Amino acid sequence: MALSEHLRPVAPALWEFGPEHRPGMRVPVRVYATKGLLESMDEQVLQQAANVATLPGIVEASFCMPDAHWGYGFPIGGVAAMDPRHGVISPGGIGFDINCGMRLVRTNLLWDEVAPHLRNLVDALAHRVPAGTGRRGFVRVDRDEFRDVLREGARWCVRNGLGLPADLAATEAGGCLPDADPDCVSERAIERGYNQIGTLGSGNHYLEIQVVPEGGIFHKELAGAFGLHRPGQVAIMFHCGSRGFGHQVATDSLQVFLRAMPKKFGLEVIDRELACAPFHSEEGQRYFKAMNCAANMSFVNRQVILHRIREVFSRVLGREPDELGLVQIYDVAHNIAKLESHRTGGRERTLLVHRKGATRAFPPGHPELPEAYRRWGQPVILGGSMETGSYLLVGAETGAQSFYSTAHGSGRTMSRTQARKRIRGETLQKRMQERGIYVRGASWRGLAEEAGFAYKSVDEVAEAAEIAGLSRRVVHLQPVGNVKG
Amino acid sequence: MDPRHYEFVDAVTSDLSFVARGETLEQAFAAAAEALLAATVARPEAVEGRVTLPIRLEDDDLELLLLAFLSELVFRRDAQGLLLRVGRLRVLADGRARLEGELVGEPMDAGRHRLEGDVKAVTAHGLRVAALDGGWEVHVTLDV
Q1: How far is B129 from A417, CA to CA, in rounded Å?
Q2: pLDDT (tens digit, 9 = 90+) per residue, A125-150?
Q3: Residue A60 in 3-state DSSP?
């Protein structure tokens, strides 16, 4: 019997099946979705969420966000909190692209003033922010200085004139995770990553110019608090991660964990990509500290890209960055594991929350939020496909049920190979241009793979997250120009 | 056997999976390396053998060995800009799994190689090295 047949509705946009339906499950699986999203969800998502539910130390449930889809190890859109005292850390619950995340920047420009410059802006961004395979970044550091980058995160950028203190205040954890130890990182990871600072990468990474459409404001007061409240207002959103550095950190740890699991820890997993180690073991701690280095590298990567964006807008529009009001709204990770304090089982506990393709969404009043947002809640950046638009959401008190986690994007419904069979990159570019979206891709194949039809409806994902109480919609954003990695 | 004995399959929605086959373990590993190259550049047959690198790896079992082998190729491409395939290979599975041989290829050249995909990593999801009647088959999922 398929696991989907065991799913029972337990609350609005929330479904569950219990641990009795699959041997080894320690907790239930909970899926956030409307009926429509659930029907389009691959059965494999449930299998993978059930596999996650078998991991030692998992607390409460194995969660799937509304954009969940079939990944490797954990489903993408998977959330699992472990008790760090006896539970595990799993690189498969974070992904190879450690701290892949989103950054949203507002401007005080209106679409009418930007429209005549759109092509120049997109072309200049494509030129100045390297994208695609094997591209080198514009920030040059040697290997020793790269270790400082890993320790300091985005603070290193501000110290080197590549960012503003206000950018740090609007970045998760101030752009610097403290438990980062470069001594836990291999030379290979450093060799792979030290010259990639300031690169977008490829796959589903992008840099997009967006506009607040008429009727796109869902919550006027919150939109005002985040400074994105005028129809026609232009914003910039981008999506990228820790590049080859993070990929190598994850690759190294996966191999270490796979070798240590049977011999040292006596652990067996259903899927080898769920490789894990007790959080407090030497292997677990080394990975955690290396992962935090990769998370810091990723904050740096997005910070220097923002610096380039400011340069490009200033040069193309012939105005100082200050005049353009290029203010970062927020930067948030969606592939990470963090130690956080949550209330579960009637008491406050420190948990290791794995979010893989899921976004932290702290509620109003949360002490970890910057002062400017504490009254309103954490901004959440939901990146849609390059054809259909994105959302700014905000965390809600009712999100405690998922350890304050929500969706991260639209979620694929079609494989990359299928998408390529359906459309050619050249055709897609032309079609998007006819609809007023100017797109430049690093490769035609990569462009075709990211076609809008390969994704779920971002509107439905944002709505499902709101119905379930994980987050609220603030502003819908429409793409007008896109640099595709 | 043709080293291009691989096919990309519709498996993991967000990533890229393939099955590679060979009459021998060496051929199956070489075909997997070829699939990885095809995931990276548009015309893998245009990659010439201008550089030779020795390779020697050892691991607990054949699947971990394949993971380490393909991860080595990903590292060489991303860190050193080298597009590589198998030149000569010997795979041994006598208790420990071991591999020794040579990789051949050339540095990426934007004028001749159209880069198509940035393979981030080789995952362990569904990773399989299986003996079949008259040969070997490997299953791999790449994070792209």
Answers
A1: 23
A2: 999 998 876 678 889 999 999 999 99
A3: strand
| Interface with A, mutate which of B9, B10, B14, B64 (most A CBs under 10 A) | B14
- The rounded Cα A349 to chain-centroid distance in angstroms is 25
What percent of chain B stands above pLDDT 70? 97
Q: How many CB atoms lie within 10 A of CB A178?
A: 10
Does the pLDDT value for residue A415 go beyond 80?
A: yes
Give the integer Cα–Cα distance in Å for A64 and A55: 15
d(CA A44, CA A412): 13
pLDDT of A462 above 50: yes
For A209, A218, A255, A391, the CA distances from A476, given in Å and listed in that order, are: 13, 8, 41, 5
Q: How far is CA A411 from CA A427, A455, A485, B13, in A?
A: 23, 6, 18, 9
Q: What percent of chain A has pLDDT over 70?
A: 99
Q: Which two tokens stand for residue A320?
A: 């100082």
Gap from B9 CA to chain A (nearest CA, Å): 8
Q: What is the pLDDT of residue B3?
A: 56
Helix pair angle (A118-128, A282-317), 10° resolution: 140
Tokens at residue B28, please? 């199956």
pTM: 0.96
Interface list for B 8-37 with A (CB within 8 A): 8-16
For β-strands B135-143 and A359-360, DSSP reports them as: unpaired
Residue of A nearest to B143 (CA): A96
Q: Distance (Å, rounded) from C-alpha B33 to C-alpha B47?
A: 13
Residue B58 in contact with residue A255, Cβ under 8 Å? no
Look up residue A21 and give its amino acid: H
**Residue type, position A250, single letter:** A
Nearest CB to A69 within list B13, B78, B81: B13
The Cα–Cα gap between A22 and A107 comes to: 50
A77 has pLDDT over 90: yes
Residue A423 has pLDDT above 50, yes or no: yes
Interface test with A, best of B8, B12, B119 (most A CBs within 10 A): B12
CA distance A236 to A311: 13
The upper half-sphere exposure of residue A220, i.e. CA atoms within 13 Å in the direction of its Cβ, equals: 2
Bridge partners, residue A277, by sequence: A89
For B53-78, give the DSSP string.
EEEEEEESSHHHHHHHHHHHHHHHHH
Instruction: Mark residue A132 as left, alpha or beta (left: phi above 0; alpha: psi -120 to 50; beta: remaining).
Output: left
DSSP-derived letter for residue A261 is: I
Angle (CA) B123-B128-B131 rounded to 5° is 155
Amino acid sitting at position A249? V
- B70 in Cβ contact with B32 (< 8 Å): yes
Q: What ipTM does this complex have?
A: 0.95
pLDDT confidence tier of residue B4, bands split at 50, 70 and 90: low
Q: For residues A386 and A46, is the Cβ–Cβ distance under 8 A?
A: no
| Of A455, A452, A453, A448, residue with least CA distance to A427 | A448
